[in-house]
Amino acid sequence: MDQTVDFINVNRDRYVEELKAYLAIPSISALPEHAGDVRRCAEWTAEALRGAGLQNVRLIETPGNPVVYGDWLGAPGAPTVLFYGHYDVQPVDPVELWTSPPFEATVRDGEIYARGAADDKGQVFMHIKAVEAHLKQTGKLPINIRFFIEGEEEVGSVHLDEFVRTHKADLAADVVVISDSPMFDRGIPSICYGLRGLAYFQIDLRGTKSDLHSGSFGGAVANPAFVLAQILNQMKDRSGRIRIPGFYDDVRELSEAERAEWKKLPFNETRYRKELGAPKLFGETGYSTLERVWARPTFEVNGLLSGFTGDGAKTVLPATAMAKVSMRLVPDQQPEKIAELFEAYLNDVCPKTVELTVTRMHGGKPWMTEFDNKFVRAAGRAIERGFGKAPVFNREGGSIPVVSTFQEELGVPSVLFGVGLPDENAHAPDEKLDLGNFHNGIIAAAYLYAELAVVE
Ligand code: BES
Ligand code: ZN
Asked: Is 283 inside a domain boundary?
């Protein structure tokens, strides 16, 4: 391992230059105009796998964006790792709030700023470089590995369940490794053992066939903007509890043991609040902030659109109102069941004065695992080597839809070892990755692939 680590140390600057080229490709899966860039990014990823010394590298088509596959299976008898990540990124708007252009990666104060730096290209690249270091230095890997890097994670991985079901042989493995989440805090590496799920919807209301003069018609018809506000207001009570009947039926309550563990984590609520710029934190009564984010479901409004929003005033009754809403789910809530409960309640609370259309968008199942297993212990040792500190165990509030699919379809456990930070600005302007964490992450990943060879 010493030689491999030396190799990683010597190549530190080259990795950053290569990562800049990766981050220059605007692989935004949500925007059709970037379809060509998404494919170019898949090809770039495949080239990086080939360059690292992986074999059987190819793009595998799906009904959506291609999956990038590459393997190295030259360690008979050793475990096989399935490394999963994504090469697609989120849109960059509002682009004027970026300090430097989102697709011209820029280093400031030891952090690299670009869309995808943390989520997830930087973290994917870390593993490619760890494998490259082993192969360049020793000509082999301690374990077998399959890279499985998708291009639709940021749009809900809609084609991936089917893909996993129909490519079980290509994905056969003993353990899944993923780096697509933040660590607990700067200097506090972590292993994540739970993710929330998601159910996302668009609500459209129509009041009249076109906008109306609010003097001539105001008072005679319902205003869809107002009706929308009234509907949304009925989704949660003032204590933050969601009012959809049956919504909490399948929520697994937090155990006292888990609550006690989380209380020991070095979480500073005042610092958290200040960093977010929030005047006061808010969440469901009876739960701490970490509990609310990691273990409780939510109902959120992601966007609202209606009526006149330009400068000045315009006396108008909008014809339509639209909201994007989503619910984060926790074990054992199922997105399909939640969708039915939500739609039934929405139909119930929506008055007959407007026409209602609900569109189901993407979703994902929540995931949680026992973490006292040999793979997690191996990851713990590797992280300690890379970061000089043993990891803490945390859950996260975000979602990675395919993780529960790996568990259900392949029966394979996942180890989530992310090196982002809570202030990484994922999905927001000025997304960044700490280059110290990137570098230590490459070393930890290289150790991980050595430690997984000797699990017991
Ligand atoms: N990297 C995130 C997932 C994540 C975020 C894990 C925060 C842990 C903490 C991933 O790229 C992501 O953004 N997922 C989407 C999934 C959705 C589109 C189904 C999410 O969570 O919104
Ligand atoms: Zn993301």
From this structure: no
Q: Which atom of ligand 1 is nearest to the CA of 401?
A: 19
pLDDT digit string, tens, across residues 349-361: 999 999 999 999 9
Q: Which residues are catalytic?
A: 88, 153
Say how far apart CA 267 and CA 251 lie, in whole Å: 25
Q: Which amino acid, 248?
A: Y
User: Which residue in 456, 419, 426 sits closest to 185, CA to CA?
Assistant: 419
Tell me which residues have their CB within 5 A of the ion that is ligand 2: 119
pLDDT tens-digit readout, 325-334: 999 999 999 9
**Whether the Cβ atoms of residue 323 and residue 232 lie closer than 8 Å to each other:** yes
Biggest CA-to-CA distance, the chain:
81
From the CA of 196, the nearest ligand is 1
Number of domains in the chain: 2
**Whole-model pTM over 0.90:** yes
| Integer Cα distance of 366 and 292 in angstroms | 15
Residue 127 lies in a domain: yes
The domain in which residue 315 lies consists of 197-251+297-364
Assess whether the C-beta atom of 156 lies below 6 angstroms from ligand 1.
yes
Say if ligand 1 is within 6 A of residue 88 CB: no
